[in-house]
Amino acid sequence: MKPDNIFSRRISVAPMMDWTDRHCRMFHRQISRHTWLYTEMVTTGALLHGDVPRHLDFNDEEHPVALQLGGSEPLDLAKCAKLGEQWGYDEVNLNCGCPSERVQKGAFGACLMSEATLVADCVKAMRDAVQIDVTVKHRIGIDDITSYDFVRDFVGTVADAGCNTFIVHARNAILKGLSPKENREIPPLRYEFAHQLKKDFPALEIIINGGFKTVEEIDAHLLHVDGVMIGREAYHNPFLMTSFDARYYNDTTVPKTRAEVLHAMIPYIHSQLEKHGKSEKGGGLKLNSITRHMLGLMAGLPNARAFRQILSDSKKLALGDPDLLLQALARMQPIAA
């Protein structure tokens, strides 16, 4: 059930392929109650011709949670946005930032930045189909287009179609010659482009994304934009989020300790194994499908390596026993308790 009080997108965790599935989001929700969470990108084809529950099922505790779609056909996106709304998502986000060749072959992702009018048509079709927010995540340019005017005109065109929220990954996307990983590291970050967008479009919600690792960095950018989206740092060092509720949402509830986070995940794992079945091979749910997202919980602490080793032990994982988390925690005592 969707909560009555949906909080702002002041802080969010980026959609990350193969990472931000429902188990990862459930884990992150134990650390922060209010941080916005995003799904992995789901293509329109996967929803219109595939297993909808597999792609859209999520846990009520994940709210606020957004569905990111990949596609470029307005009618298909409208149908998928409607599915997202029916399944209870709080937002639908259009991916205009992914540079992978596989995504380009589908004529969507970052290559859509060269077709702002088409993106506007997609946004309008989705907005006409749903009552929830429709947002766009994009880069600041593609290939050798490095002029601010390019991203300014893109945002202006799409905003005219009714999009009020833009998530700006402050790097160019290089469509040929760089892997997705290299596209996250090699093109220089130009945060000033996102800052300028907020100045030029003060009525829009501008959220900045790209390379943030500390709350001090987040604080500095919140002086210029409406929100900050963190990516891989939330995955590799998830306990960074423990201060977010008090710092950015004025929630003085005492956050869980690392040990409490682990204990909170055990009944969830039991419920998921019961629902989907245990599996060593073939069908069912593997314990590693959940525990792999938790490897960074002890990042920076003594014995963090031993913690990771236990949660990655194939023989222990094959037993399908959620108490494996307690075995890993025991290697951290009394530090994480």
UniProtKB/TrEMBL annotation:
Active site: 98
Site entry (Interacts with tRNA), positions: 95, 181, 184, 305, 308
Co-factor(s): FMN
Pfam families on file: Dus (PF01207)
Catalytic activity line of the entry: 5,6-dihydrouridine(20a) in tRNA + NADP(+) = uridine(20a) in tRNA + NADPH + H(+); 5,6-dihydrouridine(20a) in tRNA + NAD(+) = uridine(20a) in tRNA + NADH + H(+); 5,6-dihydrouridine(20) in tRNA + NAD(+) = uridine(20) in tRNA + NADH + H(+); 5,6-dihydrouridine(20) in tRNA + NADP(+) = uridine(20) in tRNA + NADPH + H(+)
Gene3D superfamilies: 1.20.120.1460, Aldolase class I
SUPFAM superfamilies linked to this entry: FMN-linked oxidoreductases
Record InterPro entries: Aldolase_TIM (IPR013785), DUS-like_FMN-bd (IPR035587), DUS_fam (IPR001269), DusA (IPR004653), tRNA_hU_synthase_CS (IPR018517)
Enzyme class per UniProt: oxidoreductase
Function per UniProt: Catalyzes the synthesis of 5,6-dihydrouridine (D), a modified base found in the D-loop of most tRNAs, via the reduction of the C5-C6 double bond in target uridines. Specifically modifies U20 and U20a in tRNAs.
Record protein name field: tRNA-dihydrouridine(20/20a) synthase
Provenance organism: Herminiimonas aquatilis
The encoding gene: dusA
